[in-house]
Amino acid sequence: PTNALQAAMPRARDAKVWNTDLAAACEARLNDAIQRKHQSEFSWRRSRDRIVALDQEIYVQKNGTIVNLDKAVSPVEQKRIYNELVRVIEGKADIGGGGG
User: Fold this and answer.
1) What residues contact 48, with CB distance under 8 A and at least 6 apart?
2) pLDDT 10s digit of each residue in the chain, 100 long?
3) Element (H, E) at 78
4) DSSP code for 94
């Protein structure tokens, strides 16, 4: 029920839309994984592609709820990537790197 309510609430005009920045964060971590020859490359590529393809805006409501990120990146199946992107939104991780 709360998810349906949250989805129905429109984005505040002053709320930042995160799609482009989160795709860039995925891209930076993808490039890092490629350089390190790490298998997380595939997860970061998939997450980037899903964020780019998402036809809804990812934003944060005034109460702190992140809207629509879970439609591109599963907080259950891709918990590490989801948490890293939340850290980017919260300002605790840089867009350009700092993930794995």
Assistant:
1) 23, 26, 27, 30
2) 445 545 556 788 889 999 999 999 999 999 999 999 999 999 999 999 999 999 999 999 999 999 999 999 999 999 999 999 999 999 999 998 654 4
3) none
4) B
Spatial separation of the C-alpha atoms in residues 30 and 99, rounded to whole Å: 9
pTM: 0.85
Tokens standing for residue 60: 């944060």
Question: Checking DSSP bridges between strand 66-67 and strand 59-60, what pairing results, if any?
Answer: antiparallel
Q: Distance between CA 70 and CA 82 in Å, rounded?
A: 8
Residues contacting 59, CB < 8 A, separation 6+: 11, 12, 15, 16, 17, 18, 66, 67, 68
Closest CA to 40 of 54, 26, 52, 50: 26
